[in-house]
Specification:
By secondary structure, this protein is of the alpha/beta class. It is 29% helix and 28% strand. It binds ribose-5-phosphate. It is an enzyme of class 2 (transferase).
Length: 307
C-alpha cells in the first residue's frame, strides 16, 4: 500500500509541511465550491488500494472544513482506497461532548458518527478537547499531544526557572500534570466556572503560585476570556507578572487579541494545528509529529511512543 496525502482548504500549509517531512508529494485534488456554495471535491489521481491520509483540521469555518473532509473521505472510499485515515490536527465541535443542560446535542459524537459513516478507518488528532472523544469512535483514534513540543521550547527559553505549571481549569489538569512532571515543576490549577460561551470566572487558585512564574497550558484559546481571567486570578494570588501562555489550538475569535495582550503575559505560544493570521505569537510546528504518526501507522508501529 502506498501513502497518499490529500488536503482540503483548512490548512494547506500544514499539509505541505507534513508532506515534506514525509518525503511524499501532496496528492492532486479539486476542493472548491459549486456556484450555489456546495462543496465540490474530485481526487485527480488514483487511490485504488492506497493508504490515504486526509489532512484537514476542522477549524473555522468549521462546517465548511468538516464537509470538505467528509466529501474527501467519501471520494476516497468510492475510489477503492485501501485505508482512509482522517488526520484532524484540530478536532472542532469537541466542546459539546456531553449534554450540560437539557435538550442539547452531543456534537462531538455526531461528528464521530459522520466520519465513520463516510468510511474513515482511523483518526489521528492532537489534543482533543476531551480525551473521552476517543471513545465516541468505534475505529482507532491516535490521540497525539503537544506537551513535548511545549516542554522543549520552555526549556530552551529558560522559562522553567521559578516556574509553576498552571491548568486554567479542571479539564486541562492531566496535560498540565504531564507538563509539570516533564519539567520537574510544581503544579497549580484554577477552579473555573463557565457562565456562558464567552463568560467565565475563576473561583479559586489551587496550589502555591506566589512569587512564581506561571506557565499556563490550555488546549484552545477561543475568545481568550479563560486566559485573561486566569491571569488576573494568578496576579491576585501573588504570581509574578511574567507569565507564559501556551495552547495547542489558536482558534482566536472575538476579543482574543486584546485578552492575550495582558501586560502580565510575557509570551504566547501556539502550535500550527490551525492557520494563524495574526502575528506576535510564537508558533511551534506539529508537522514532524504528524509525519511521524503517519509513518508509524503506515508501517504498523506503535504510536504511543510519540505521545
Ligand atoms: C475549555 O474548557 C477549554 O479548555 C478552553 O479553556 C476554552 O475553550 C477557551 O475558551 P475561551 O478562550 O473563549 O475562554
Amino acid at each position: 500500500m502506498e501513502i497518499k496525502l490529500f488536503t482540503g482548504n483548512a490548512h494547506p500549509d500544514l499539509a505541505r509541511r507534513v508532506a515534506e517531512a514525509l518525503g511524499v508529494p501532496l496528492g492532486k485534488a479539486v476542493v472548491d465550491r459549486f456556484p450555489d456554495g456546495e462543496v465540490r471535491v474530485r481526487l485527480l489521481e488514483s487511490v485504488r488500494g492506497d493508504d490515504v491520509y486526509l489532512i484537514q483540521p476542522t477549524s473555522p469555518p468549521v462546517n465548511d472544513h468538516l464537509m470538505e473532509l467528509l466529501l474527501l473521505a467519501d471520494a476516497a472510499r468510492r475510489s477503492s482506497a485501501g485505508r482512509i485515515n482522517a488526520v484532524i490536527p484540530y478536532f472542532g465541535y469537541a466542546r459539546q461532548d456531553k449534554q450540560t443542560q437539557g435538550r442539547e446535542p452531543v456534537s462531538a459524537k455526531l461528528v464521530a458518527n459522520l466520519l465513520e459513516t463516510v468510511g474513515v478507518h482511523r483518526v489521528i488528532a492532537i489534543d482533543l478537547h476531551a480525551p473521552q472523544i476517543q471513545g465516541f469512535f468505534d475505529i482507532p483514534v491516535d490521540h497525539l499531544s503537544a506537551v513535548r513540543l511545549f516542554a522543549r521550547y520552555l526549556q530552551e527559553k529558560g522559562y522553567t526557572e521559578n516556574g509553576v505549571v498552571v491548568s486554567p481549569d479542571a479539564g486541562r489538569a492531566e496535560e498540565a500534570r504531564r507538563l509539570s512532571e516533564r519539567l520537574g515543576l510544581p503544579l497549580a490549577m484554577l477552579a473555573k466556572r463557565r457562565h456562558g460561551p464567552k463568560d467565565t470566572s475563576v473561583t479559586y487558585v489551587i496550589g502555591e503560585v506566589a512569587g512564581k512564574r506561571p506557565l499556563i497550558i490550555d488546549d484552545i484559546v477561543s475568545t481568550g476570556g479563560t486566559i485573561r481571567r486566569g491571569v488576573e486570578a494568578l496576579l491576585l494570588a501573588g504570581a509574578l507578572p511574567e507569565m507564559v501562555v501556551m495552547a495547542t489550538h489558536p482558534v482566536l475569535v472575538g476579543e482574543a487579541r486584546e485578552n492575550l495582550s495582558h501586560p502580565a503575559i510575557r509570551e504566547v505560544i501556539f502550535t500550527d494545528t490551525i492557520p494563524l493570521r495574526d502575528g506576535g505569537y510564537t508558533v511551534l510546528s506539529t508537522a514532524e509529529l504528524l509525519a511521524q504518526a503517519i509513518r508509524h501507522v503506515h508501517t504498523n508501529q506503535s504510536v504511543s511512543a510519540l505521545i
